[in-house]
Each structure stands twice: as C-alpha cells, then as structure tokens.
Specification:
It is a single chain. The strands form five sheets. A five-stranded parallel β-sheet has the order 3-2-4-1-5, sandwiched between helices. Strands 6-7-10-8-9 form a five-stranded mixed β-sheet, with helices on both faces. It has a five-stranded parallel β-sheet with strand order 12-11-20-21-22, with helices on both faces. It starts with 6 loop residues before the first strand and ends with a helix. With 507 residues, the chain is of the alpha/beta class. The chain is built from 19 helices and 22 strands. Bound molecules: S-adenosyl-L-homocysteine.
Length: 507
C-alpha cells in the first residue's frame, strides 16, 4: 500500500472502430498508469497509453476467459498500489459487460472510480449497417436482449411472449449460437415469421459482414455463411431500411486488405484515403530513410552552391534530406539564391514550397526522364546539383553530362528496411491480402528480398498495384502480377485505379 490514492476509470472503448471512443475516454486512457483490456477493445488504443503497463485479460488461444473474479482482484490490487487504472471495456461498460459488477467491487472497497460511457455495439452496428433502430412508421420501442444468459440460468427465462409482441425492434447480443432458438421462440410467441432480421458481425470494422433475412430463413443463411461471433441480431421492420440506407459496407474498397509498403512517415495520408474508401490498410513499411554513410560529398556540394546553376530534386526525401543538412551546416534558403530549382513532380514541389521556395520547373512526365527532357536543351556548360538516394538510377547524371552539364550527384540519403518488417509481412501474408501496393522499385526489391521461397510464392498470389512503369517492371521481373498502374504516377491516381480495379472485379 502507498499513500497515493488509486483511481479507476471504467471506460467504454466502443465497438471496434477506434474513432468511436469518446474524447473523455481517450483522455483518461492517456493519463493511465495501468491499462486492463480484453479482446473487444481495439489494440490501437494501447498505442495511446505507451506510458502505462498493459494487462490483457481477454480470451487466450485454447484457454478459457480470464475469470471475472481475477479481473476484480486485479483492479483492487492495482488501485491499491495507488495507480491510475484504465479498465477498457468493449462497447459500453454498463451494457452486458459486467461493468456493474466491477464497479460494485470498487465501491465496496472504497476505491474512487468513474464510469465513462461508450458507444454500445447495437448503436454502432445499427448505424454502420444502415438500420435506424426506431422509426415513426414502424416502431417506437426498442429492446436490448442478451441471447446468452448466465449458463446457470436458461435462455427460456426470458419472457418470450412479451418480447415477441410487446417490443418493436429487438437487438440480441451474444445470440449467434442461440439464433435458432431465438427465432423459434419469437415465432412461437406470436411474431410474424416474415419479420425482417439482420445479423451483423464485426460491426464498424473493415471486416463487418451482414446477412439480411427473416425469422424463417436467417438460421440457414448464418449456417451456410459460417458466421462467427461477435455478432448482433436485429429483429424488426426497421431492418428493411438497410436496403436504402447502407453506406458503410458498399464503399468501393470495403473489406479489402491492402498492404502498404511505403515508408511509415509518408504512408499516413495514403492509409487515410484507403480507410475512407472502406479498405483495411495493412501497414508494412519496406523502407525507412536514413542519412548517408558519409556527408563528405554532400557537404562539399553545399560548399559550392555559389557556383551551382541548377538544383534537381527527384523525391520528397531528397528535399527533406537536403534541407536538413543545410540547416545542420547552419545555412538557410538564402544559400540557394540564383539557383534554378527543378522538382520531379507536384508532390516534391509541395514539399519544396513548405521550405519557402517555389520550383522553377516541373516536367510533364514525373520521372527522371522527364527531368532530362526539360533540362537537356539548356544545361550545357552549367553545373547541376542532384542530391540523390544511394542506389538511385543513373539517368539524370548520365544524360545531363551527355548534354554538356557538369553534374554533381552526392548521396543525400539511403533507404533501409526497418526493423520488425519481416514479422509484419509474414503475419500479413498469413492473414491474407487482397492487394499489395508498391510506390517504388526499392519497395518491391526489399519485400521480395525478405521472403524465402515459400513466402515469395505466397506474395506472387496477391495482385499488385504499382505507382508507375519502372516499379511495375521490377515487380514483374520478380514474378508478381501487376493489375493496377495509373497513367500518371501520383497517389491520387493510384487510389482511383485501385477503386476501379475492385469495382470491375466484383461486378
Ligand atoms: N459491453 C459491450 C457488449 C459486451 S457483450 C457493448 O456495449 O457493446 C459482447 C457481445 O457484444 C458480442 O457477443 C456481440 O453480440 C456484441 N458485440 C460487441 N462488439 C461487436 C461488434 N463489433 N460487432 C457485432 N457485435 C458486437
């Protein structure tokens, strides 16, 4: 025991979509010293509490649930040590989550606590499946029912007659294995056998699946689809609105697992776009930007900026690497006065602009070849500085030298494979993927280099989306099947083409 008073937050973590935890819940989580969680809470939440000890009390492979008694003990023990404890519970703590029992234990032990409500699975699943749980035209009453009572009691202790006819919309939690019994009881007690029923599993996640039927045929549908929990059963006329109101599971990339191999620092926007199209991005960065082995060459080139006529920047990484070295050498953008700035495309231009500089030239073709095309007519006798990636292609130095320029091309950065990538990749291939995206040849080369023969075989079974022709060539040389390559090499174009691909494939 310490003098410090422990404190427990019982937090509703929502149904799965990490955006569905309350701001208050997130705030409590960030202040916690201990986080106690189970499988229904999204694992991403743990990243919000890196400061805390994380204790998993959910189901383990092959083992039974962590007994409630032990969870209660753990709460008392950690709070007794004077810790701030965040107990994350799926959905809402007070709806079929035994939050009431946990709070009672705390109250009896005089441990101060707070209950932070959450979006319960029924509310969330209804919204994400397009089922308005009440509607003036068909129902004004709503019931949340457990389909799996305390095993000591029997499901038949529910008052079926009143449920069947007295409540308009019924939502059953934990009812999947009892579905047959639920449907039979409702019909036997007076509910129309043609009443619409929807079963929604893994609601609000990219794995959400819904079956639409009636009290008569839903059992067979669930059986033949081999539906697994967690799932909710919606019974009532309101279910039919889903045909018109569904919005979540009919987006173009819904449920597609897409491997993103870009460097983590640059993948965020791409992943957000994939998410908004309904996909499940699986982040597995194949490269990470690291400084060059030595700065000697780059520093010498920076030293000679006064005699330099052109600065060619062919990637956002090159821009960042160049300007960060400039700053380390105690210089700023004034060192570039009078130099013509060339960027390979609009993204690189945007990053350059963020340093307060506008490019003078951007080629129409966003590749090294495009840069050569716009420069070759005017660089004879000029000095061109091209800070490049280690292992960059030689197109620019070779062709511009041929055009009469003096090309200085120091290595400004290297790309390396981040630690932990192999494990992530193996897991992703194991779980199954619908598409692999590549944003450069080196992402392809790195991915294939990590895999053994059987891993390569697995990867070759997954279709590939590539940012442009060079990346596609590398992928095809590795035996991969490129199914998407946009006309222009931008991420927006890539996303559009990926959507097109799946729309055409699925129809
Ligand atoms: N306290 C939780 C419910 C816990 S009981 C809440 O308020 O949501 C667990 C049951 O909730 C599961 O068996 C399932 O019926 C339902 N459930 C939880 N998350 C779900 C999800 N994402 N999709 C469908 N059902 C879910």
């Amino acid at each position: 025991m310490t003098d410090k008073q422990g404190y427990v937050y019982l937090i509703g973590a929502g149904p799965g979509d990490p955006g569905l935890m309350t701001v208050k819940g997130m705030d409590c989580l960030q202040r916690a010293e201990v986080v106690i969680y189970d499988y229904l809470a999204n694992p991403l939440f743990l990243e919000q509490a890196p400061q805390a000890e994380h204790i998993y009390v959910g189901k383990r492979k092959g083992l039974h649930h962590y007994p409630q008694e032990k969870i209660n003990q753990l709460l008392l023990e950690k709070a007794g040590e004077g810790k701030v404890v965040a107990r994350l519970k799926g959905g809402d703590p007070f709806i079929f989550g035994r939050g009431g029992e946990e709070a009672m234990v705390l109250a009896e032990a005089d441990i101060p606590f707070e209950i932070v409500p959450g979006v319960t699975a029924a509310v969330a699943a209804a919204a994400y499946a397009g089922i308005p749980m009440t509607h003036r035209d068909c129902t004004t009453t709503l019931g949340f029912v457990t389909g799996h009572e305390d095993p000591a009691k029997k499901l038949s202790s529910l008052d079926w007659e009143k449920l069947a006819t007295g409540v308009g919309t019924l939502v059953f939690y934990m009812g999947l294995t009892n579905l047959e019994n639920i449907c039979e009881q409702l019909v036997a007690h007076g509910r129309d056998p043609q009443t619409p029923v929807a079963v929604v599993r893994c609601a609000t996640t990219p794995r959400q699946q819904t079956l639409d039927g009636t009290l008569t045929d839903i059992v067979d549908m669930v059986r033949s689809a081999d539906f697994k929990p967690p799932a909710l059963i919606f019974v009532g006329e309101v279910v039919k609105f889903r045909a018109t109101l569904r919005w979540f599971d009919d987006r173009p990339l819904f449920g597609k697992r897409i491997l993103v191999t870009r460097a983590a620092a640059q993948a965020d926007e791409f992943c957000q776009h994939l998410l908004s199209l309904g996909a499940e991005p699986v982040l597995c960065p194949m490269l990470e930007i690291a400084p060059p082995e030595s700065f000697t060459e780059l520093d010498r080139a920076i030293d000679q900026l006064l005699e330099t006529d052109y600065l060619v920047l062919t990637s956002t990484n090159a821009v960042d690497a160049f300007f960060s070295r400039l700053a380390e050498l105690d210089l700023d953008v004034r060192a570039l006065a009078g130099i013509k700035l060339v960027t390979v495309g609009p993204k690189t231009a945007a990053v350059l602009t963020s340093y307060g500089l506008k490019p003078d030239m951007i080629p129409a073709d966003y590749r090294a070849e495009g840069v050569v095309d716009i420069l070759k007519g005017e660089v004879a006798g000029k000095r061109v500085l091209y800070p490049k990636a280690e292992l960059a292609r030689d197109v620019i130095p070779e062709q511009l030298t041929r055009a009469g320029a003096e090309v200085v091309s120091p290595v400004a950065y290297r790309s390396i494979i981040p630690a932990g990538t192999f494990e992530k990749l193996e897991q992703a291939l194991e779980d199954g993927l619908d598409l692999i995206t590549f944003s450069s040849s080196s992402t392809v080369t790195n991915l294939m280099a990590l895999l053994d023969a059987s891993g390569k075989l697995k990867a070759r079974q997954v279709p590939v989306a590539s940012i442009g022709p060079l990346t596609s060539k590398t992928a095809e040389d590795e035996g991969l099947e490129v199914v998407v390559e946009p006309g222009v090499s931008t991420f927006d174009a890539l996303l559009t083409e990926i959507s097109e691909y799946f729309i055409n494939k699925d129809t």
